[in-house]
Amino acid sequence: MASSVRAAFIDRDGVINEERNYVYKIQDFVLLPGVLEALKIFQDTGFLLIVVTNQAGIARGYYDSKAVEELHFYMRSLFSDSGIMIDKIYYCPHHREGIVKKYAIDCNCRKPAPGMLIQAVNEFNINTAQSVLIGDKISDIQAGRRAGVGCNVLVESGHPFETSTRFLADYVVADLLAAAQLFSMRS
After folding, report:
1. Is 13 a catalytic residue?
2. Which domains are assigned to the chain?
3. What are phi and psi of 26, to 5 degrees?
4. Measuring CA to CA, which residue among 120, 77, 76, 113 is closest to residue 96?
5. Catalytic one among 11, 28, 44, 106?
6. For binding Mg(2+), which residues are annotated in this chain's numbering (predicted)?
7. Is residue 141 within 8 Å of 169, Cβ to Cβ?
8. Share of the chain above pLDDT 70, in %
9. 55 annotated binding-site participant
10. Residue 54 annotated in ligand binding
């Protein structure tokens, strides 16, 4: 029997918070407008909230995993204060061009690879066909497709992307709130 558990796989930088290149300090973490409302919509319509984020700054030596964990603790507390529970945050510290040797590798978790999503699917018994991925880069969409995610949404609130790549996404919307509203109508 197929699982009925569905997830909203959500990229972090450019989707949840302002894209500022290598956000790891709490003072640089600025929520995008409508994010709390969007997360609440997903949560209230029965989606697990799973954050999947590449954090190449660790491999590049800009910051360490402790800084990422502290930022994620802060982010979760912001959400918790609004009644939102993030079910899990996965991050990839790898980049093959990194300077920190143990992270300077090719891996199966750095998007566009689907490793973080597959790990979540296995941990939570998620039905990928009933799930959604929201990201601001084509690599997010590619990871969702490779993991078998049923709907992959590209948002315009983060990194600019070439118009020619828009066709890779199932939907292109302004931001996370627009994505949540789209799915609340479909639920």
Report:
1. yes
2. 6-186 (3.40.50.1000)
3. -55, -40
4. 113
5. 11
6. 11, 13, 136-137
7. yes
8. 97
9. yes
10. yes
Spatial distance between the Cα atoms of 187 and 174, rounded to a whole number of angstroms:
20
Average pLDDT over residues 142-170: 88
* Cβ pair 102, 121 in contact under 8 A: no
- Determine the pLDDT at residue 187: 55
Active-site entry in 13, 87, 106, 170: 13
The reply to whether 92 sits in an annotated binding site is yes
19 marked among binding-site residues? yes
Tokens at residue 165, please?
Answer: 């790549």
| pLDDT reported for residue 164 | 67
CA angle 82, 87, 89 (to 5 degrees): 105
Rounded to whole angstroms, how far apart are CA atoms 67 and 42? 27
Containing 88, the helix (H) or strand (E) segment is strand 88-92
The answer to whether residue 17 scores a pLDDT higher than 60 is: yes
Task: Evaluate whether 118 touches 146 at the Cβ level (below 8 Å).
Answer: no
* pLDDT 10s digits, 70-105: 999 999 999 999 999 999 999 999 999 999 999 999
